[in-house]
Amino acid sequence: MAMFMQTAHSARITVGDESLYLWGFKVNRVKMVLTWLFTVFSFGIFRLLLYWYPKLRVKCTSSKCSLNIADGVLIQDEHMNLAFRPVRCMIAGAGLQPALPIPGFRMTDVSSLRYFTYKKLMHLWYPDEERFVPIDSLETDISFLRFHDMAANGLSKDEVRKRLTVYGKNLIEVKLKPIFVLLFLEFISPFYIFQLFSVSVWFTDEYEIYASVIVAMTVLSITLDVYQTRKQEKKLRSMVHSSAIVQVLREGSPPANICSEE
Questions:
Q1: Count of C-beta atoms within a 10 Å radius of residue 225
Q2: Are 11 and 22 in contact (CB under 8 A)?
Q3: Whole-model pTM above 0.90?
Q4: How far apart, in whole angstroms, are the C-alpha atoms of residue 134 and residue 13?
Q5: Which residues contact 84 (CB under 8 A, 6 or more apart)?
Q6: What tens digit of pLDDT does each residue of 43-99 get?
Q7: In what order do the strands lie in the sheet with 112-118?
């Protein structure tokens, strides 16, 4: 069961035993220009600080606003971990018809659908209630009569298409990051940036041998970290990816065999 508490700018979402705190932000062009100017004049150091501190990055590029117009949300969990997620929007047109799940295991068409994704879980914006709702708390109170109706007729193709648009395919997709991205993310961590600064000082003071050893150890450490990360990503993807052939009912037609991902 999900619980919601919110004001115009912030909200608290409780799903089960976990709580998330949300704050709405909208990109401020003036702040964005100033941020890029500071980044250029500091040779990227300021941008690096913003990467290390997400809350500071949000304050330097965005302004507070109500959640109903926010184009990004700052999220804090119970362990004080911070993350910033963009609010995306599906707009009806060109064969795409967004829909919101409503009580009774039904979908209602909307002209646009705002949402953000956090830890691979989509949170939908309900404009009438002015709140974000995680999709795992939707359609929990379904009557047995509705199940009997579905067992007799199945879902229509239109409803299946709408549900695929909102919920996505029935799979957990683990994307592998490119090697150069993993290398870059490792390199810009505070520890390795400090190592880079230290090595530069040692080379300047003519400690070439000692500095060279540190460089070699750093390269080896980054390589091993990237190797372990890629290995864990592949292992996780192989564990969560599975599919099978299942039977479904569609619009009163005889049962059809399809892939479970669909």
A1: 16
A2: yes
A3: no
A4: 9
A5: 25, 54, 57, 58, 72, 73, 74, 75
A6: 888 998 988 888 899 999 999 999 988 999 999 988 888 889 999 988 877 677 788
A7: 88-91, 112-118, 121-126, 131-134
